[in-house]
Protein: Transcriptional activator of acetoin/glycerol metabolism
Organism: Saccharomonospora marina XMU15
Amino acid sequence: MTGSVPPLAIAPSRHSGGDHVVSGSLVTTSSAREVARAWESFAAGEDVETGVRPEILASWYRCRDRYEVDRSLDAAPGAGGDVQRVDNDVIFTALGSLGALAGQQVERDGAVVTVTDGGGRVLGLWGDPSTQRRAELHNLAPWSSWSEQCTGTNGMGTSLEVSGAVTVTGPEHWCEAFHQWACAGISIRDVVTRAPVASINISRWNAPLSELVPLWLTKAVACVEQEIYRRAVYEADKVIAEFNKNSVQAAGAVMAMDRGGNVIAANEAAVALLGLTGETPLVTGAIEPAQRWTPDISGLADVVRWAKERARGTAQWSGYATLTVNRGEAATPLTMRPVVDSNLVVGMLCVFGVQEGEPFESTSEAAAGSLPRRVIGMRNDRLVLLSPSEIRYAEADRNVVWLMTERGRIQAATRGLENVERSLTPYGFRRVHRRFLVNLRRVAELERGIKGELFLIMDSRSHEFVPVSRRHAPELRRMLGV
């Protein structure tokens, strides 16, 4: 495993003897009682805004309103299916070594360490034997499912929903049977897709965890993620080599994408079609993940996912979809050709204006089935419940989305502008820029720049500007009737 992991201290203080349980229950402290009262109210169907940490309350909303998890569940269900493969199992090998090492260190403190895949399936369990036996009563064991969707708020499942380390203590768990547990988990994310591929979690029964545990988890994950970064750079080399070989023969626009649908390379025709500048690093190839560009082509992400699934590691496969590349213009066919290495799809070549292979068939669910009753935001130690009409616009800062509202600047609980857009489109929101989503009902004025740029003024009092990209301007004018 690359890098070094510091020693792990689980207990807030050392104690001796065979009894690992410290005095006092996790549910009897004043703060725990306050959370327990909030849990009772929330589980009964009421809305709660204070008394619970924002990340926990956001998880409760997912468990109650989206996943409909039974709060009386006392054991995790079994998990079926295959374990997700990442980098020929190098990541899980590194995690297994890390879990076994940490398990030896936490055994003396009555704790256990678990490793899951990106779907919340437990792959391994290490640590104190007596705690392992108690955990088995809740089916905290290999091949059980601890995703939020299956088992509610918990360290493993909730860490797969958010970035960074997360702790879940006592009655913060959605299922009452787990209220005597304290746990801390963190997800390992693919640097290309930003999707979780695994998690590591530490659990302790009827005793708190040290405040240093989340820091240890963060450092441990950084060591493992170096392997994912190394793989991303290796895959980019393969994709660029295939792009260079094919673009020489291509007469039209061609771009190369990684597994996440981010553009790694594009020829001059594609750069012009997409409205990019000639100095973009995509012309020579973006080896570094941070240099890659996410195209703002509606439906392209779904097509890339479909193509990866249909190709199944076969380089000879091809498929096409018809998408609107520039809004206000006619749709054009895009042919997808996989880049394969060791029978795994590591990227895609996208050829514009060509219709070749299998036609794309959308399998996405109707948007009406997932309309939010409210938009959940986070500010300081509170969860903020917003109606869509309160939001003027949303701005993306990488994967974090900020909502501009009458109550100020609030971070969206949902990560990724594409996810926020999917939820808000039915309420009159439209993408006007790769970083901005606006509420068309809240546009106050339009202003032209010196070079003909278009800006939306969302609040005439503060002269709040939102830029409009050239490719979105024609469609926006049509929708606003100007």
Remarks:
- The chain has a mean pLDDT of 85.
- Residues 250-359 form a domain with the Beta-Lactamase fold (CATH 3.30.450.20).
